[in-house]
Amino acid sequence: MWFNSFEFWVFFGLVAMGCWRLDHAGRNRLLLAASYFFYGCYDWRFLGLILFCSAVNYHAAVRIVAAPNPIRRRRWLVLAVAVSLGVLGVFKYLGFFVREASRVLTWAGLDAGPWALEILLPAGISFFTFQALSYTIDVYRGDTRPCRDFADFALFISFFPQLVAGPIERSSHLLPQVERPRPPCDGVRFRRGLHLVLTGLFLKVGIADNMAWLAGHVFGAAPETLAGPEVLFGVYAFAFQIYGDFAGYSAIACGTACWLGFDLMTNFRRPYFALDPRDFWQRWHISLSTWLRDYLYIPLGGNRGGSGRTARNLMVTMLLGGLWHGAAWTFVVWGGIHGLWLGLHRACLRWRPGAAVTAPWLKGVKWFVTFHLVCLTWLAFRADSLRDALTLLGRLGADWRLTDYSLTCLGMFGFFLLPWLAYEAWLERRREDEALLKISWGWRAVFYLYLILMLLFFPPPVPAEFIYFRF
Amino acid sequence: MNTELRVFIALLLALLGLEAAARLFETRLSKDIAHLRSLPAEAARLRDAPADSCKVLILGNSLARAGLDRERLTRGLQAKLGRPVVLAAMHPDGSRIEEWQYGYRRYFEQTGARPDLVLLCTGRAHLLDGLRDLDAVAAFHVSWRDLPGFVREQKLGVDALCQVIAARASALFAHRRRVQPLLFYHWMPRYEPTVNLIQAAGQGAARRSAAPEESARAFLGLLQTCRAAGTRVALLPVPLPEPYELPTGVVEAAQLGGAFTLGPPPRLPARHFPDGYHLDAEGAALWTAALLEQRGWDAWLSELRSGR
């Protein structure tokens, strides 16, 4: 049940109407049932898995609080973390590690034969396991109090707007909203939700799916047949595909949640306007980057202990962040490049501390370099294999002629991306995510009409599924 | 008034205005829509044709529109049948067997405008490929009477059903896929070759139905509808730049449904395909002449000749 399908909106309308008629407890029960129904629509066989993860973490948190001594508390934490990561490891990574082990054994002369283990990947497993993990860790640290109602906790884990592709919510933020009565959908909430839903749908259908069609050609073709501009434009197209896809999903999730009385965290903040890698990670998939910071980077030592240890911690965090996206070396390399880049950037800052960039031309250069380095990492991320990524990289410098595909790409970028980037540039100037809600209603109506007409008249040639459902 | 209510009302009014404009100007904006909207008149021509005439319907898509020389065809059929021929045509752009099946029923079968002869003009894929725009089929080709059967037959889920309802209710929604090609094919640099390139590389495969059997079933359904009303069907493979034969399954289905199948189309020089796909006027004249001369017609047309 995709967010950009009529099916979802019929479902959401029924749920919203049901919530309107019920009291707080009834709403929570309805939302829980709706969330399980929503997840069951992808694959009902994994309903047991999400229930299992919820039960383990709920129980562990209760036991952590009730434990008579720190050792018992730690044991329950370790158990919950091991089970959650175990679930993730089996469903997401076991096939990958079996295949890689088989390769290593074959390479070492121990003829192991090609081992293959194909395990069906449950939708959104990385999101709900991380959300469950953060809850148990927060309870262990004393940052949040344990939830006393299993149904409320199960809703916190499975809340349908953000279940399969985030944002990865913290218990300290979302759980109180589940437990306490929520505000009704008044004029302010309706306005905010409408803005988020319409921009989210445009990002997904107008930008991501139309760019997917262009990017798919470059990453699906034999790399050696492509001209340099084709590779470059294909990577640009993928950069906006993944941004539109994920930011669009997050915006729709926040918008629908807003209409239901919840406030989810902002997951994207105009990432392609970043001026350096740290800035990029403060704008891109914010819920994951802050999760990794709080539960991995800081526990590893963070920036305490000297530049060497900081660089190591950054690299480990980003490598694991890459692996979080999927069981493939391309994701690991993607994380590795980001780790290296963040480390180098940190070293540069130490070398020239407090060097503020004020000149517009210098900002332009920094933006240009950052955007292209991000695109370079997307090339590794999207390529089918590391060999393909290297070949595509090599083709970037070869055969610089404008083919039919390149010219169409330029036209499509101008048509679909430029107006959106102009809007984002305006938001960036005002430094306000919801500046649109503060301008005259007439301009807002014109902007929404543009979004609706684009959705209506410029659907993609081939609808694409949400990329992050696979993560 | 709440400002968001104003936004909502403004959006609603704008969309209603566009809907009205789409309904008012649709036939002026698109030749294809003008053709679709003229189908009741085409049907009326057949219905009102003199009793001694032979009513012939050309069924197909742009291949049929460009590929047949209608005057030459009328003269040739009149000579073969020995009686006047009234010719009507239904050839919406990009249409396939599902559009033909439901469109034939909606505009001709259910309005009492049954032809004596249907010339079903097709390329290699149109009777078998599973490419479908269900909401467009529902909006323009399925009658209200057939709608429940269509929903059942196509096993429409909630999403498809909503799209069908929206397409029936709103011209703006029903026409939405016409705007992008109209703009992009004219204004987007090198769009057409890029689309062809990407489709050839398999990007379009995602839209292809996994089960061409559905299309085959639609073909048989059309043949059965025609047969039940005593309408004869001739299957005419239209020349394409590359030679081809109709798939065996299609020929067998045609035999099963009592249709007459002409042999493979003649190979015509590439200059007769100025856009690489459709015949030009000269090519249409050549093919029309060639198909009238094909063997097998005379015996098959004997019943029509005698006016039975």
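qc> Residues 188-275+357-470 of chain A form one domain.
qc> done
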